[in-house]
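Sample 1 of the test manifest.
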Amino acid sequence: MSERSDEDAELMLRVKRGDLEAFEALVAKYQQAVMNLIYRTLPDATEAEDLAQAVFVQVYKSAHRYEVSAKFTTWLFTIARNLCLNEIRRRSRHPAESLEASVGIEGDEGVRQYRDVKTYGPEEVALQTELEEKVREAIGGLPETQRTALLLCCENELSYEDISGVIGCSLSATKSLIHRAREALKLRLKPYLKSGVWAGREA
Amino acid sequence: MRKARFVANDLGTLGMKQQNDTGGAMNQELLERLWRGDLTGSERARVLSEESVRGGGDLQGQIEEEEALNRLISQNPGCPVSTNFTSRVMEAVRLEQARARREARRGEKGLWGGIGAWLRGSWVAQVLATGLVVVFGVGSMVGLRTYERRQLARSLEVVRDVAALSELELLRDFETIQQLGRVVESSSSMESDAALLAALQ
């Protein structure tokens, strides 16, 4: 992890000097992580991608302010989270329903984000789809701070200190957020945790 | 409420140095490592064997539950990024660069642009500019006060001159007296007598 952060810091220093290739490498490396974080907050693929693009543009614009003392991922996810919160605030001021969201209501929402499941039988695929839907709903139903803390911990493997830096609260409060998020998920996903549906996928 | 009965020397590698009294069955540090999926297979096996020796309850069940949740979270797919995402970002960055260059050029144009750029670029310049504005403001106020005082002094002088004048009754025949004075100055002949008479009339 520290090697990775050193590498990121090195790339970021190059970006600071105006090296676009270094920036491209950072975008390629973190685009999926940023996209996932945003998508869990704003479940609209197109808007999430636009926002992810805005995050990286913001990173480039703020590159001159980057200090090596700050870990790149903490900095990146803080920018991503702030833009998400701005977008949520903007939406609450000017509520509008996106076309993609309304299409999703009719039944084929999120088809594009599912993994390739062609190696499984129809029953397994149906089960898989249901499970993915339930997990997404459960994660989406968490309060924003809990969700962000949980995803940064489980998906992006940030240290608890880094997560607290992104969320902007103390270490103990961060751990408490993750704990509460996990307890809520365990409660909501209890039948799926016991069924071991995912074991088949791992094999 | 059950307490996890971990012994410090047995679980040193996991950093578990005290018993868990928080009410949960699992040591907090073990729990945090499980959240992150950091617990290796051998560590897990050792923790479980230690627990079974001590006649622990459902620690295995809890560990399995945490691990199952980790799997659910990590295997739940996110949203795939478009294949052209990086090129779109790079295009946006190039546009941003071009815009910044245009703004910089616009800023550099002309004396005011140069001054503006200088002011934006240096805090010393900002302090100097603020100082200049303050000095100019104070100078203007002092100048205005001085001007007002001078005007007041002039008005007082006029009032003083008017106050020094004779009474208005005496001024009523001012023109006549003036003409008499001229007549006296001009000559003392018959003409002057006639003029004096005219003046008196």
